[in-house]
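Handout, page 2. Input:
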Amino acid sequence: MFSQRFEELVQALRVLPSVGPKSAQRMALHLVMKNREGAVFLAQALNEAASYIHACQVCNSLTEHDICEICASHERDEQVLCVVESPADVMAIEHSGSFKGKYHVLGGHLSPLDGIGPDEIGIPALVERLSQNIIQEVIIATNATVEGQATAHYLLESCKHLSLRMTRIAQGVPQGGELEYVDSHTLSQAVHNRMQLK
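Output:
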């Protein structure tokens, strides 16, 4: 092989999701042969991110401060809380510009086979947060997977004793979608969660 350091770079790149040995090798070759300046910039950016970005003490999303900008904002609706699985979900909802409340990031979903239970994704801490009587509505925005649905159901059961409005984001046929191209599970969800028009 080229060198021990090159092999270490390839192995380091393999920690990225969906990056196999060949992809990691191509990236490493590109960085050391064609874009050394980019390699140095990437290394510095990764070091800075790893050193300064951490979980928000309130919502568990990503921030460089103790409390993220969304949690610290007085312009957001403190009575509406959107529960999501990951910071990526926060970014997606924020990009849509459709939500002006606050968030709680679980950091995953329930998966008993993988040893991920309520404690591992912080559901007791969420229930404690909801018990403070500030939040009036909880929007459950977990993914439309089996695990996401199970997590949503568990959250609903865990909050039955609280006087909260619990809602779930709509699921089903996407806007502009044609029925013949929609998979059967999505179509089933759309029929089951149909809305009343009259």
